[in-house]
Amino acid sequence: MAEYIAPLREMQFVMQELAGLEQVAQLPGCEEATADLADAILDEASKFASNVLSPLNWSGDQEGAKWANNAVTMPAGFKSAYQQFAENGWTALACDPEFGGQGLPKILSTPVNEMWKSANMAFSLCPMLTQGAIEALLVAGSDELKQRYLPKMVSGEWTGTMNLTEPNAGSDLAAVRTRAEPQGDGTYKVFGQKIFITYGDHDMVSNTVHLVLARLPDAPEGVKGISLFVVPKFMVNADGSLGARNDAYCVSIEHKLGIHASPTAVMAFGDNGGAIGYLVGQENRGLEYMFIMMNAARFAVGMEGVALAERAYQRARDYAKERIQGTEVGVRGGPKVAIIKHPDVRRMLMSMRSQTEAMRALAYVVAAAMDAAKRHPDEAERAKNQAFADLMIPVVKGWSTEQSIEIASTGVQVHGGMGFIEETGAAQHLRDARITAIYEGTTAIQANDLIGRKMAREGGVTMKAVLGLMQQTLGKLAEAKGEQFAVIRARLAAGVAALTKASEYMVATYGSDIKAAHAGSVPFLKLTGIVAGGWQMARAALIAQAKIDGGDADPFYAAKVVTTRFYADHILTQADGLAESIVAGASGVMALGEDQF
Q: Where is the Acetyl-CoA dehydrogenase-like C-terminal domain positioned along the sequence (predicted)?
């Protein structure tokens, strides 16, 4: 079974030439993020992904995480791989230097994280959740909590989790019933059960730091009455050593469709007298703090979509080059050929490739905007970039994950009957991808966030600004020569017009008929992703053509233009239909009574 090979040339192009690594390196604190350093880091990360993580992907899926006696044992090789991962400094890449991190910008850590997810999705979830916990503690934790927990979380000696969901709550966090009782000494006793806790328990590290949503005795009802607590698996002594076992146990793990090597735990807090916890920040602001984790996690899950799409594409491409079946269309009596010669197989592969490249391009550009929002010296620039990132994060998350499922399914189709057989590996990518559209808020939750908090609340101001940037790209396309660019421009122009129409409808309708707006929210998210992805692909094609015109013979650039043209013809052409379903389709959604379904 072929191992994952990081698409370094593509990653370097998007990071450096499209997303603007050079501009990010000019931001305060990012001066060391040069192209040479980026290339060196990506090269080392690709080796670790291919040689250490990828070989464990299949075996880990087959063996799975095991639970017994309130403890989880990871599949063979995972503990050793994690120890190497931490020792090599990968856990600290983007973390605050004050606590032992390397402080590198998000535009540089994003392709590295993509590699982990492509190579071994189940493994990558552990450091991903830890990073989210670190960010929440950095923003809201007391100095004491930061000093006690962050250095060992940053170093990878300890891992972190986020404990939100409960059996009665699902995505409705207002229904959280886990309670925290103050003990009068600054500590709390936490009682309750949490479900779907990724890496809630495992044997790769000595301690796990749980961030837990719970209610204080006098808390108001609803989301305004939720607080956030640190609940460690093992208590931490004053000198930093581990103390007694806390009353926080994994009482079972879920049996899932995919990501079998990632333990999804049911966590019980306080069954034996109370789990000791520490308040993070202020009382009743827990959901606000948890959203720090969730926003980071939503972008990271979007990158899971990109990563799994890439892995599925690589496997399908390699199989298509090796599988001999049938003769070439139009060649009578010719020899049997590899199926990559067949037009429909090529169409499927180009569909997988072009969408993956569009998703990656959009995500990396958003990552660069997140760096500027955090570090740019000009307040107005920080605000502008933050608004863009806020608008696009639900798109990166929702669109990329939904398309990864479709792309992985297409990968199975390329394999034919063998794709349905587990041993080829194609099915695993589809199974693993399926959870990504549910993680950290379903696609509908992302879409409702997009049309509500990110658009209607501000009257569509940021979306109008983004559409203005797309118009600027259309102007540059008009100046480009050749049929390829004429077609790309025409398709993108139609897509921008469709997105403009749908955006204006959403802003106008959200206040007057919110159900109609919500009925079209997921198609609107998909439309936004398709057009925003096409915009980035068009920018990439312009950059590539400029390189070609300058005498660069690297075939990568010619392929980028061709891939963009395919995206324009096969993906951007969906925009008009989606806009129509958004503007005119709400009546069909709401027309039937519940008893008619």
A: 470-592
